[in-house]
Design goal:
- By secondary structure, the chain is an alpha/beta fold.
- Among the domains are: 102-245, 3-Layer(aba) Sandwich (Rossmann fold); 250-341; 342-421, Arc Repressor Mutant, subunit A (Orthogonal Bundle), CATH 1.10.10; 423-578, Alpha Horseshoe (Serine Threonine Protein Phosphatase 5, Tetratricopeptide repeat); 619-690, no CATH class.
- It is built from 29 helices and 13 strands.
- It has a five-stranded parallel beta sheet with strand order 5-7-8-4-9, with helices on both faces. A four-stranded mixed beta sheet has the order 3-2-1-6. A two-stranded antiparallel sheet has the order 10-11.
- The radius of gyration is 46 Å and the shape is globular.
- It starts with 42 loop residues before the first strand and ends in a 9-residue tail after the last helix.
- The model is unreliable at 1-38, 305-330, 586-664 and 697-857 (pLDDT under 50).
């Protein structure tokens, strides 16, 4: 059907209805017209408690998974699926005629010991050099242990795998996990109950990481294959160690005979003895040596067949050929000892052209052999898939997990023979092929994930040589990473996903492709968020948003903002101002608000107008207002500060001030700054107050019974305003402050806190201090100056601070003798020492509502 018309395309009309408005097209040019674009392949899966939508266009989207879409308890695979998973874990059978399987020779003792240890539930590490036959022995033991554990045998590959990869692959091999990847803790809780014999070959880590793997699976018995250079686990790890050595000479010759398929001649037996000494008895070397002898026999048989038809006039007669291979030893000599110890180049020279080209691709891809289904497209031969059978037959490749790699030492030998001359060209060709294949809608993510090692090898080879492409061109590495990374994510191969993203980000940076670089950073942030690495996720997402802002990519920016808001929600913290490092505001982010403690936060407003005072502050910053009023702090206009209603004595209320608790970091910073400033100002005032400006000690100017008025608001003391006794024109003496009292407030009064049983004193006049300063009559009230009125209206605490600094009254001329110094901090005057004038003045102030200190009634 034509997407632009409603009727059949071959007719161009809709059953006699109105014709399409599009002009008819030429029948010869229809196939060359632009087709409809292929829809992007998106996959939705659950990762932990996240719902992840893999979007290869704008970037993956992640959100909290709705409760109804969360999967339930995982269930185990049925037997049919387990059998299919076990077959998929093995390397594919190469096409072509099947080769005879070589028997395992002289390994019966190791094989029986391994089976006995695994039957007792013990884990074993089999250590052997590359080419020692370690993989063959593991396969044989796995077949013997098929019925030992309730969950059977699980085959895993440790090649380029982390402990998290192995734990997830073990989980997926036993439980059904389609479109669901549990969180790490969920995996740990599940694999703890798996009881299986885990055959783990080519392990690349040890030490405490291996201890972590063993501790996470207490019900599993591991059969681990590793090389001697891999670190051992800890000394107390429940792991046995078995070292696998080479063959002796008799076993090596027997293996060579089995590989050739006939008995060895005397010369071949001597040659095998020299090879055994050179190769330390590694079985791989004798398997390759048997391939050399087979090739030699085929060459001789081919020459005899040609001679039968008379092609070579000087060829030996057929009668000579009937005596066997020894008749032509002078024509085809045995390989040299060096060729037998490093046979890769000689073996490859006698293979087909497709096999040799496959080896060149393998060298370019770091030793990885592409799957046999890709060889025809890469090599350019429709029958190139048979090349894998040739390589397996001559032991140039060995199985690694579910694929093949070059055998140990083969890559170095082939590079010396010139197989790496065009490595960059072949890596680029492989990258273009895999990019087209991975992005095709018919290819499932599982198939791309199975070929992950070859794809990543192509990326590794191309990224270092990436340069900015020309006009109309694209970087092969960037395109491959862009196509393969979403498939790895959908296939739940997250280690491969991360490697592809990092390689793609590096290649995009080298190619100066900002848009692609932003995509890779976004995906890295999403992956980090799924893995629980919030700080890394925030950094990657902010980098992506910043790059997309430069490109004005609105859709990509929205996807990044949503993911970043989810990071902020999970971390419980929002960047200052709700903006990221890239300057973007985070939508739907939860801003932290300051929550006052129960009853409100006590206000602390100093007479100088500086903000909050912390505990232990001195000086002017420690002057606290009384009463039930509240004041806003000028340090931070967003902080709500309240004051607990008054009640009780002033000392009790002032002692109730404790550490100011802020609800947010910004409030704490502002509060600390204000406290520091108030403390500095208080220190300055303290130094000025304690300085000897008149030559007398401030304590000596304080009498035992100073003239003071009782505050009507809270029972505090309020100092009378000083003025001359008889002459109003004489200047009044200004009282100077003394050391701070027990509550931290400054003043000159030495009276204790008022009591309810205060009585008039016998001496109504008070006592004059040595400074001869006069005190006004407590019954008279003076009108405050404008500045004093402003100070009193702004903060009631200022008037109370002044009220505590009372000056002595000289009304009693009989008491002019200086009094001894009095400690104002500890002095407690008797209740009957207060003058009668103070009591009457306090009553008058309470009745009139106008006290000398300006405190309202």
């Amino acid at each position: 059907m034509d997407p632009n018309t409603r009727g059949p395309e071959e007719y161009g009309h809709d059953d006699g209805q109105a014709q399409s408005k599009r002009p008819p097209r030429d029948a010869l040019t229809q196939d060359f017209d632009r087709h409809a674009p292929v829809l992007a392949r998106t996959v939705q899966l659950v990762s932990g408690d996240f719902l992840l939508t893999v979007n290869p266009v704008d970037g993956s989207e992640i959100e909290n998974c709705p409760p109804g879409e969360l999967p339930g308890q995982p269930v185990k695979h049925p037997p049919a699926e387990r059998a299919a998973i076990d077959r998929a874990a093995r390397p594919p059978v190469p096409p072509g005629p099947s080769l005879p399987r070589l028997p395992m020779l002289h390994r019966d003792d190791e094989r029986g010991r391994l089976v006995r240890l695994l039957a007792r539930g013990r884990s074993v590490r089999l250590t052997g050099a590359p080419g020692s036959g370690r993989t063959t022995l593991l396969d044989a033991v796995a077949e013997d242990c098929a019925d030992l554990a309730p969950d059977g045998v699980v085959r895993l590959s440790g090649f380029r795998r982390t402990v998290d990869d192995l734990l997830y692959e073990l989980f997926a091999a036993v439980y059904s996990t389609r479109l669901f990847r549990p969180a790490r803790q969920q995996i740990l809780d599940t694999v703890r109950d798996i009881g299986a014999v885990v055959v783990l070959d080519d392990l690349e880590f040890g030490g405490i990481v291996l201890d972590e793997l063993l501790d996470a699976t207490p019900e599993c018995a591991f059969l681990i294959g590793a090389t001697p250079d891999i670190p051992m686990p800890s000394a107390d790890a429940p792991l046995e160690e078995i070292v696998l050595g080479g063959f002796d000479r008799a076993a090596a010759e027997q293996l060579l005979e089995r590989a050739v398929g006939r008995e060895l001649t005397e010369d071949e037996s001597n040659w095998a003895g020299d090879l055994w000494f050179e190769s330390e008895g590694l079985p791989l070397r004798f398997t390759q040596a048997g391939a050399l002898l087979r090739q030699r026999d085929r060459q001789r048989a081919g020459a005899d067949a040609v001679d039968e038809f008379g092609v070579f006039q000087d060829a030996p007669s057929l009668v000579d050929a009937s005596f066997g291979p020894a008749a032509h030893e002078h024509d085809l000599p045995l390989p040299s000892l060096a060729e037998g110890a490093a046979p890769a180049a000689l073996l490859a020279s006698r293979l087909s052209s497709s096999a040799r080209e496959t080896l060149r691709f393998a060298v370019a891809l770091g030793g990885e052999i592409p799957h046999q289904a890709h060889l025809p497209a890469l090599v350019g031969d429709t029958h190139a898939d048979a090349a894998l059978g040739e390589l397996v037959g001559c032991a140039l490749v060995t199985p690694v997990g579910a694929r093949y790699r070059l055998a140990a030492g083969a890559r170095t030998q082939l590079e010396a023979a010139g197989y790496a001359d065009d490595a960059e060209t072949r890596a680029d060709a492989a990258a273009q092929h895999y990019a087209w294949w991975a992005g095709h809608p018919s290819v499932t993510p599982e198939r791309v994930s199975a070929e992950a090692d070859a794809v990543l090898a192509a990326l590794t080879a191309l990224v270092p040589v990436t340069t900015p492409p020309g006009e109309g061109e694209e970087s092969a590495a960037v395109v491959l990473a862009r196509q393969a990374a979403p498939a790895f994510a959908a296939g739940q191969r997250w280690s491969a996903w991360e490697r592809a993203l990092r390689a793609g980000a590096e290649a995009a940076g080298l190619a100066a492709e900002t848009g692609e670089q932003a995509y890779f950073h976004h995906e890295l942030g999403v992956l980090a968020l799924c893995s629980g690495q919030l700080e890394r996720a925030r950094a990657e997402l902010e980098a992506s948003i910043g790059l997309r802002n430069v490109l004005a990519d609105k859709r990509g920016t929205v996807a990044g903002r949503r993911a970043l808001a989810l990071v902020a929600d999970r971390s419980g913290a929002t960047p200052p101002g709700g903006r990221t490092a890239a300057g973007e505001e985070v939508p739907d982010a939860r801003h932290e608000e300051s929550a006052p403690p129960p009853g409100g936060v006590p206000s602390a407003y100093t007479p100088l107008g500086f903000g909050v005072v912390g505990p232990g502050a001195t000086g002017a910053g420690a002057a606290i207002g009384g009463g039930g009023s509240s004041s806003a702090l000028p340090v931070n206009d967003t902080t709500l500060v309240t004051h607990r209603p008054g009640g009780g004595s002033p000392a009790h209320r002032l002692g109730g001030l404790r550490t100011l608790v802020g609800g947010a970091r910004r409030n704490l910073v502002a509060t600390g700054a204000g406290a520091l400033l108030a403390a500095v100002l208080g220190t300055v005032v303290t130094l000025g107050a304690t300085s000897d400006r008149s030559g007398d000690t401030p304590a000596e100017r304080v009498g035992v019974n100073p003239s003071a008025s009782e505050g009507v608001d809270d029972g505090g003391l309020s100092a009378d305003r000083p003025k001359t006794g008889e002459d109003d024109d004489a200047p009044a003496a200004v009282p100077e402050p003394t050391d701070p009292g027990p509550d931290g407030a400054y003043g000159t009064s030495d009276d204790p806190a008022p009591t309810d049983s205060a009585e008039p004193s016998d001496d109504p006049s008070g006592t004059d201090g040595p400074t001869k300063s006069a005190s006004p009559s407590p019954t008279k009230s003076t009108k405050p100056t404008p500045s004093e009125s402003e100070s009193e209206s702004a903060s009631p605490s200022a008037s109370e601070s002044e009220s505590e600094s009372a000056s002595p009254s000289p009304s009693d001329p009989s008491s002019q003798a200086p009094t001894p110094p009095v400690d104002t901090n500890t002095m407690s005057a008797p209740a009957n020492s207060r003058p009668a004038e103070s009591t009457s003045s306090a009553d008058a102030s309470a009745n009139t509502g106008d006290s000398p200190s300006g405190t309202p009634a």
